[in-house]
Amino acid sequence: xxxxxxxxxxxxxxxxxxxxAAETLHVTQSTISKMVRQLxxxxxAPLLIRDGRKLTLTDTGAIVYARGQDLLAxxxxxxxxxxxxxxxxxxxxxxxxxxxxxxxxxxxxxxxxQRHPAxxxxxxxxxxxxxxxxxxxxxxxxxxxxxxxxxLLALETEPIASxxxxxxxxxxTFPKTRSTLxxxxxxxxxxxxxxxxxxxxxSLRNAFRAADIEPAVVAQSGQWDWLVAMASAGMGxxxxxxxxxHRLAIGHLDTLRLVEPELQWPVAHVWNGRxxxxxARAWLDVCHDVLGRRGA
Length: 296
Hints:
CATH topology of the largest domain: D-Maltodextrin-Binding Protein, domain 2
Number of helices: 10
Largest sheet: 10 strands, mixed
Low-confidence stretches: none
CATH architecture of the largest domain: 3-Layer(aba) Sandwich
Shape: elongated
Order of helices and strands: HHHEEHEHEHEEEEHEHEHEEH
Distance between the termini: 54 Å
Number of strands: 12
Structural class: alpha/beta
CATH class of the largest domain: Alpha Beta
Strand content: 25-35%
Number of domains: 3
């Protein structure tokens, strides 16, 4: 079956007009009529009943129209996939990444540039929850967040790494003999947290609710290093993932790992469950190779 004739037929039925179909497809009306007749000859039965300007599908025409839409959609998807395959040679990809998570991805960026130098990679920084919304709305193809993602957004998630949460406070806040801190102990301490639109804070608040704790939050910031500065000044206890603890000058700070329960900072990719481009899949492959399931 000639795909061009099928496309012209489907467009004519969709618009219910030979004239409008010709305008949409940028051909003459006689070309549209010729292609529809050619399709009818190929099928061996009339497809349209023409009554003046009104067009009515025959039984055969209804089948050809329904199946034709499916066939054309499949062909369009195949074309997209083929273009995406070629895009590994000359494509582009934008990845949403929270400012805290980006510190972990420097080796991933280096490896991706080396493997796919022709793909123009852009990082869009925002909070985890904002990235989830952008991915769900189709504004971003893929991004990173901290689990659990918002269940109302129906996102696909794939964990990439998980790290324990530590408490950070001014030197002398905790006994020297302690190496861990129970979650319930935080109920009696002032806290300095990241802002509520950070996925880490969402996860912490969920943990507080589950433990029936009403946290005493005295300050919030969008910068993790400012939280550390406030904790160092004795304003309160900061709660941060293990990779950030390793970046601190521990001498003037107390750092204890949270336990009972042990809270984790699970980093994951999110996408909207629709088609994932070859460039995005290439990004996932590099992440798996470089990060694996670190910290798990």
